[in-house]
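Regression test attached.
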Amino acid sequence: MEDALHAGEGWRRFIDRDEPGDIVIGATQGAGCFGAAYEFLFNTSYQLKKAGLKDKVKLTYVSAEPFLGHFGIGGLPHGESLLGMFLKKEKIDAVLDTAMDHVDEGRLVLADGRTLDFGYAMIIPPFSGQEVVRKVETISDDNGFVKVRDTYQSEAYDDLYAVGVAAAVEVPWTTATPVGIPKTGFPSEQQAHTAAVNIAAQIRGEEPAAHKAFGDIPAVCVMDAGNNGVVILADKMLPPRKHGVLIPGPHAHAMKLGFEKYFLWKMKHGQVRLP
Ligand SMILES: Cc1cc2nc3c(=O)[nH]c(=O)nc-3n(C[C@H](O)[C@H](O)[C@H](O)COP(=O)(O)OP(=O)(O)OC[C@H]3O[C@@H](n4cnc5c(N)ncnc54)[C@H](O)[C@@H]3O)c2cc1C
């Protein structure tokens, strides 16, 4: 099955060229959605094989992550070696711990002056806050995200809430190249549930009593990889953790397809109480 990201015009034009050129997939300094970058990378590798171009096109992964499989959450046990194995098997080069300066027509220019030419590229930028939030200094951090407590009330006002991408999360480490936090679907939903419980309590005249810090939300993620994938599970998004596991295999690809269909059905039918 062809995934939606590789069904577009740009991809068609690329694979139909006589000399398609190389491919660069990357995530900039400050980006947080590394899972999406890895998905796109491995899906691209799979689509290159399907198009009979795998030996003709060099695929390079460029990332701010200090090591493979950091994912913006500090990495998980055996993650680096697993991702390393995936890259080796797919003959993908990696340029890590690197900042990007800019993208020219057909060329990625890194902060240290190195360049990577491409015929096709996809670069993940950092999450960016809203201008309307940035203008309100009492609620906004430097990036236009709302500074929140673990009740998802804003730090400044009891009756103003923010969750998901809009909520600021403090990065608990420093890396040579800045790496953001993955504000993905599962934590966004968990934050929204916490906020909803607290809003209902406030309406009833009670104190908001539900607390769930971003770092304490479990990590539950399925990374697609063509006809393969990895299930990512951990007791907490951010370290220190007690458990963390990566389970690779084709079942992960099937799970991702199944979940996508289930999630879209759930949302279309307003079944928000379902898990
Ligand atoms: C390429 C990519 C792949 C991803 N893959 C995964 C994945 O596999 N699994 C996963 O869990 N997560 C994934 N994510 C992350 C996931 O999409 C986000 O975590 C999730 O959408 C965050 O939800 P949200 O409600 O905070 O923000 P959003 O989904 O961005 O919703 C914000 C909404 O607010 C609207 N809006 C914005 N500004 C205004 C305004 N001024 N006025 C009114 N409305 C406004 C927007 O139009 C939008 O509808 C991926 C993200 C990307 C970019």
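Expected vs. actual: identical. DSSP finds six helices and ten strands in the chain.
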